[in-house]
Amino acid sequence: MLIQGFRILLLVLMAAGAGRAFADEAKQSAAESEQTERYTRNQIHDPNGIGKFYMGREIAHVMGFAGAQWLERNEREREERLTLLVRSLRIKPGDVVADIGAGSGVISMLMAESVLPGGKVVAVDVQQEMLDRLQTRCERAGIENIVPVLGTQQRSGLEPESIDLAIMVDVYHEFEFPYEMLLDLSRALKPGGRIVFVEYRKEDPSVPIKEVHKMSQDQVRLEAEQQEFGLKWLETVHLLPRQHVIIFRKSDSAAAE
């Protein structure tokens, strides 16, 4: 009788485990199906892109750690006017600013002083080598209010409603999962927080950047103003030589939801 009861219990446990496994598999399958519907692939594509398309745009290859020195090149200030970019953001002391796709920290380090006293810059990147390089550069410069965070292709690693501003400088077009990342970032914004896209102007053929690494203002708005993000276009700043600065604000109603 005891053996029979043990067998019944074992069968119940196995069934429960199988049920959980089936549920997990169903959730994963649904997520994969949703991603398949959201993204498409094409074998014929720009060699500088990954062959994956989102809302009519091909996603570009990510710049690897080998490109860190290019990010830090001396002529970048003249070409892109980064100090003017930071000034245009109107960052306030005490703000928590997230530099998404921070790389080796060029933009993070420029913003660090603007949030003092009391504020910090959260430098998010998917490459630990970039964050290690950023840490070394901060130590040499005596900057103590930059916090490196290792993210993933679909998650920033930021807590909900934890940041006042998120900025992406020449990186959004490289996100392998732009929908998931924007959803994650919109949740990380505080009520009324802002998210900033800095992208090379696709509208301007004279901008000396590969086409798949450019974005038009219309395309950015098409992707960012989807209802579930709760983001509303605020302004586009036309101060930089090669890029537009497209700013959105998280609505208070979206924050409440």
Would you kindly provide a written description of the structure presented here, covering whatever features stand out?
The chain is α/β, with parallel strands linked by helices. It has 2 domains: 2-36; 63-256, Vaccinia Virus protein VP39 (Rossmann fold). The chain is built from 9 helices and 11 strands. Strands 4, 5, 6, 7, 8, 9, 10 and 11 form an 8-stranded mixed beta sheet that branches. Strands 1-2-3 form a 3-stranded antiparallel beta sheet. β10 (231-237) and β11 (243-250) form a beta hairpin. The longest helix is centred in the N-terminal third of the chain and has 37 residues, at 2-38.
CATH architecture of the largest domain: 3-Layer(aba) Sandwich
- The SSE string, one letter per element, is HEEEHHHEHEHEEHEEHEEH
Q: How many domains?
A: 2
Largest sheet, in brief, is: 8 strands, mixed
Number of strands: 11
- How far the N terminus sits from the C terminus, by CA atoms, comes to 55 Å
Give the tags.
26% strand; 2 domains; Rossmann fold; alpha/beta; 3-stranded antiparallel β-sheet; 257 residues; globular; single chain; 8-stranded mixed β-sheet
List strands and helices in order, with pairings.
Layout: H1 2-38, E1 39-41, E2 49-54, E3 57-60, H2 68-71, H3 76-80, H4 82-88, E4 96-100, H5 106-112, E5 120-125, H6 128-141, E6 146-150, E7 163-169, H7 178-188, E8 189-201, E9 214-215, H8 217-224, E10 231-237, E11 243-250, H9 252-256
Parallel strand pairs: 4-5, 4-7, 5-6, 7-8, 8-9
Antiparallel strand pairs: 1-2, 2-3, 8-11, 10-11
